[in-house]
Every structure is written in C-alpha cells, then in structure tokens.
Prior knowledge:
Blueprint: H1 2-8, H2 11-22, E1 25-26, H3 27-31, H4 38-50, E2 54-59, E3 62-67
Antiparallel strand pairs: 1-3, 2-3
Helix pairs in contact: 1-4
Amino acid sequence: MEKIFQALSSTTRRKILAYLSEASLNAGEISERFDMAKPTISKHLDVLENAGLITSEKKGQFVHYSLVRDSL
C-alpha cells in the first residue's frame, strides 16, 4: 500500500492516471500532454506500474499503458 501512496503523491502521476482512465495510451501519447522530457515520463510510468496502478503491453514498436481499475 505504501507504493500506491507514493505513486499518488505526484501531481504528474495523478494526471497520467486521469488520462488513462479515459483510454489506453502509448508513452508518446502520454508525453505529448506534458512539458517534460520523455525519460521523465517513463520514470513516472515505471512508478505507477510498480505500484500496480497501471499495466503495459507491447504492441508492435509501441508500449501501451492502461489503468488497472481493480487497484483503485
């Protein structure tokens, strides 16, 4: 549970969760919505995935992220 609270402590990560609540997105689509470097977004995505809040699936050359609704 500590990982979940840590993940939710960031405004950026909460915004990512809000975007993913509407649709599954790839990392590029997520990073377009923020004014920060792609590696920074990747770190945020890693934190969310490690907390079990999102899941990733490789589709072709892209990794798509989606919300794990049971975790919330």
